[in-house]
Amino acid sequence: MRLLSIVLWMAVAIVLLLPLVRRLLSRAPRPPRSLPDELVKDPVCQTYIVKSRAVRRTNAGQVRYFCSEECARLDAGG
């Protein structure tokens, strides 16, 4: 008899808590959709590279993108 009452209480708790859990999960922030990545041109070797994978260097407030660390080192900054 005791087991039956415990199972009954658990069933009631699940029925009452399940909608609350679903509601809380649906409000969770979703990751933003990623936009298509753009290509940027390396000023040293003139190749194009995906911006998210490029080596970034900032000079006088201007961001420059390079295909590799070697090209970034070869850049004279201008």
Count of DSSP-assigned helices: 2
Largest sheet: 2 strands, antiparallel
Radius of gyration: 28 Å
Low-confidence stretches: none
Quaternary form: single chain
How many strands in all? 4
Q: Characterize the overall form.
A: rod-shaped
How many angstroms separate the termini? 84 Å
Order of helices and strands: HEEEEH
Structural class: alpha+beta
Average pLDDT, rounded to a whole number, is 87
Q: What proportion of the residues form beta strands (DSSP E)?
A: 15-25%
Biggest sheet, spatial arrangement of strands: 1-2
Percent helix range: 25-40%
Please write out the topology.
Layout lengths: L1 H25 L12 E3 L6 E3 L4 E5 L2 E5 L2 H6 L4
Antiparallel strand pairs: 1-2, 3-4
Report what the structure shows.
- With 78 residues, the protein is of the alpha+beta class.
- The chain has a domain of 36 residues.
- The chain is 40% helix and 21% strand.
- It has two helices and four strands.
- A two-stranded antiparallel sheet has the order 1-2. A two-stranded antiparallel sheet has the order 3-4.
- The relative contact order is 0.11.
